Amino acid sequence: MPTPAAITCRASHLGSVKKLDPAILALLREKIPGHFGEGSGNDIDLVLENAVLDPFRFRAGPLVSSLELHLALEGLVGSGAGAARKVGLIFAGGYAFKPGIFGLMFDRGFRTNDDENPRFTTPARQGCAVFLDPIGRLRAPGIPDRNTSQDFQKEVLFTATHELGHVFNLGHQENLNNFMRSSLPGSVFPAAAFKFLEGQKRILSRCSRDVHVEPGGSKWGDLGPDIDIRDGGVYDRPPGNLPVDPKSPLRLQIGLAMTAFHYYQPMELDVKLGLARGTKASVTVPDRVDCGYPDFTLWIEDSDGEIRRYRPLNHYCSLPGDLEIKPGKPFRRDISIFGQAGGYTFRKTGPHRIWAEFQIPGGRCIRSNVLDFELLGPGRKMQSRADHRKLVQIAGPALFYRSLHLGSRSGRALKQLADSKGKDFIADRAAACYSLGRILAKRALAEKGKADARTAIRHLSVAAGYEDIGINRRHIALELTRQLKRLL
Ligand SMILES: [Zn+2]
Question: How far is the CA of 102 from the centre of ligand 1 (A)?
């Protein structure tokens, strides 16, 4: 018999969350290793260990951001290769971008590297989070101390096991009672769902000898040659396997501010989901227009013709929710596409193409327009360009996560970039002004801070005044400016 894979799961609270009762943590320490031991025929020897994050480094509110999760994971399991037999389980109040979800699984975050040869790979499937406030709202409504509620305890156990299942490369299995089913709003699943299915057990039992199961070993959904993907359930879709619905009244449109740029430049993709002209009735779609769901996919064709999926940082496990698209009122959002899980998104110079697909009911999808763009090479090595590139690279994480968290080096570079003068790098300066303006606007609106509001208005007006900023970003910049002016 092979030696079981010894996996240490370090569990911790993050942010100002009402903590789990020690009795619940003790229950998790007992039950979760048991489920994985049994589910893997004792090939997984999981130990759940309580850990404490440095309270001075992490001062997140009840809602945590993607960046805070990534920093917390680093705090729990360390960084670099060889750390894969440690995984992180983070309990937080809620996820800032999707406050209703119970949990998510995530890869190591976006990183930049200042040197000439950035490394693009970092371990996948090493962290997961369970969000206690939405679980409390739905499973222990009206109960003064949610920790005492049986349903709350059961849902925390179910969700933590489910998210760790993703860490071991299991997908969703929706139609049968099992740990990898997505929780539903109504009630916690019955005891019969607290188990792994036979196919899932076949996968888990390979952990000690297959990197496609071992945490950190392969991307989520990459099961290698020896595993039947049907055993794993539903993952992100492979390219082009969904037919386009020609009759759908929905129209998906994407836009980019520039058609030629460098790999390190902060590119945002504008996404618009609206209705065809003349459509009279609203259309309801799942509220999943985000790369963290398998329903929404960005496809990238590299200069050598390879088609790949934009690799999101997070994989959401959500309750069902709807988005209503009304005539004349399209849904708009933007997505920072220059970074993805592991590092920069674009790696090869030359012509590229990008398009989006959104899955709609009935096993079909709608497809966006296709954008062509050129990824620029290093070009002439002017000193000013080299200095500028270095600044943009250092500012990369602050631009990508839109956060000045921890007053980091990256945050300082973002401010420097936003205040830079000269016309040569106006596109990067406009992007920096937009990001910094949004960060400061958020803080100003939350804390009613007039100084922040004034600085935010100044940066947002630079962004909105830049011709190629894109319709979404100009719209958001002007709307935020209106709200901020009310504070003054
Ligand atoms: Zn899930």
Answer: 9
